[in-house]
Specification:
This protein is α/β, with parallel strands linked by helices and 335 residues long. It is 41% helix and 16% strand. The chain has twelve helices and twelve strands. It has a six-stranded parallel β-sheet with strand order 2-1-3-4-5-11. A six-stranded mixed β-sheet has the order 7-6-8-9-10-12, sandwiched between helices. Strand 1, helix 5 and strand 2 form a beta-alpha-beta unit. Helix 1 packs across helix 2. The longest helix is centred in the N-terminal third of the chain and has 16 residues.
Length: 335
C-alpha cells in the first residue's frame, strides 16, 4: 500500500520495475541511470520512507564518510577548543568538509601515550585526519605520516619534513613584526609567548632576525601561555617586573596581544605611543577591539581550503605536497 515503509533495495526495485543495481546507482546519484528513472526511484523511496543502509554502503566502498579533526595539545594542556584561533579554523574546516558531503569527528587530544595518533588513524572510523596544529608532537606526526597518507596538519613546513602541512611562513612573520616595531623607533624588543611549538619558536626566530639585522640586542622572551586561565596573570607579571627593560612587544598571538593591550591600559601605559604591540593571526576580533590590533595575518580561511584540498587529494591516493603561505603585516592602531 502507498506509504508502507520499504525495508530494502530489493523491495524498492520491484516497485520501480528495475534491478536492484539500478536502484543502488540511482540513489547514489550515478549518471549511468537516466534522469527520469532516478527521479522515479527517488520519488518511490521518499513516499515509502526508504533510506539506504549507510553502514552497508560504507562496507562496500571501504569509506566511512567521516574526517577526523584533531587538536593535539601536548604543549598546552589547559588550552580549550573555545580559543578564538581554534574556533575560527574549525569553522572554516567544518564548512569545507560538510559541503563536500563528509561528517566530522572532533577530538581535543592530550597526548598520553607514544601511540596516541596511531590509535586515531588506525581506528577504522575515519577516511582521513586534519590536525589543527603540530603542538610539540612532530615526532609522532612524522612517524604516522610515513605510512598513513590521508593526514594533513596546520603548521610549519621545514626541510626534509615527511608529513603534509599547510601554514604560514612563521619566521617571515616574526621578521615583519620586528621590522614594524623597529620602524616605530623601538630599540629593546620583547616577545610574549612560549616556544615549545615549532610555529611560535619560528616567530621568535624571525623577531631575532629583524633585531640582528638592525644591530639591536637579542629580544627578551617572556613565557606567556595560550591557556586563558593563566595568560592574564603572566602578562601582568611580565609588565610589573620588567616593563622598563623593553619598549616594543611582539605577542605570539592576537589573544596575547589583546590581553597585553588591556594590561598596559590598566597601568596607564599608552599604546602605541609608549609601548607598541604587534600580534599574530589576524583573527576577526583584531579589527573589532579598541584600539584595533596591528598584527601579522595568516590567512586562516585560505589555509583551511588548502588543507581540505590536500586531504581530498590524499584520500584519492595523490600525495599532495605541503604549502607555505606568505604572512602579511596588517597595520592598525597598536603599532
Amino acid at each position: 500500500m502507498p506509504g508502507d515503509r520499504i525495508k530494502n533495495i530489493a523491495e524498492l526495485a520491484r516497485m520501480a520495475g528495475v534491478s536492484a543495481g539500478t536502484v543502488s546507482r540511482a540513489l547514489a546519484g550515478k549518471p549511468l541511470v537516466n534522469k527520469d528513472t532516478r527521479e522515479k526511484i527517488q520519488s518511490i523511496a521518499d513516499e515509502h520512507g526508504f533510506r539506504p543502509n549507510q553502514m552497508a554502503r560504507r562496507l562496500r566502498t571501504q569509506r566511512t564518510g567521516v574526517i577526523g579533526i584533531v587538536v593535539p595539545l601536548g604543549h598546552e594542556q589547559r588550552q580549550h577548543l573555545s580559543d578564538p584561533f581554534f574556533m575560527t579554523m574549525l569553522g572554516h574546516l567544518a564548512d569545507a568538509l560538510t559541503e563536500s558531503g563528509y561528517d566530522i569527528m572532533l577530538s581535543r587530544v592530550i597526548p598520553d601515550a607514544h601511540d596516541w595518533l596511531e590509535r586515531i588513524v588506525d581506528s577504522g572510523m575515519l577516511d582521513g585526519v586534519l590536525l589543527i596544529g603540530q603542538s610539540d608532537q612532530i615526532e609522532a606526526i612524522e612517524r604516522v605520516a610515513a605510512r598513513y597518507r590521508p593526514l594533513v596538519a596546520w603548521g610549519s613546513t621545514l626541510p626534509g619534513q615527511v608529513h603534509c602541512s599547510v601554514g604560514v611562513d612563521n619566521r617571515a612573520g616574526g621578521r615583519l613584526a620586528g621590522e614594524c616595531l623597529i620602524a616605530r623607533g623601538c630599540k629593546r624588543l620583547a616577545f610574549f609567548g612560549e616556544v615549545r611549538t615549532r610555529e611560535i619558536e619560528q616567530r621568535l626566530l624571525g623577531l631575532e632576525d629583524a633585531a640582528r639585522d638592525a644591530g639591536l640586542a637579542v629580544p627578551l622572551q617572556f613565557e606567556t601561555h595560550l591557556a586563558s586561565d593563566v595568560m592574564p596573570a603572566e602578562i601582568a607579571a611580565h609588565l610589573d617586573a620588567a616593563c622598563s627593560a623593553f619598549d616594543g612587544i611582539f605577542a605570539a598571538s592576537d589573544v596575547i596581544a589583546m590581553r597585553t593591550v588591556r594590561a598596559l591600559a590598566d597601568r596607564n601605559i599608552a599604546v602605541p605611543n609608549a609601548m607598541p604591540v604587534v600580534g599574530f593571526d589576524d583573527l576577526p576580533f583584531a579589527e573589532q577591539t579598541v584600539p584595533r590590533i596591528t598584527t601579522i595575518r595568516q590567512d586562516i580561511a585560505k589555509g583551511a581550503r588548502l588543507m581540505t584540498k590536500a586531504l581530498f587529494e590524499r584520500v584519492a591516493g595523490v600525495d599532495a605536497p605541503s604549502t607555505q603561505m606568505e604572512p602579511l603585516l596588517i597595520r592598525r592602531d597598536t603599532a
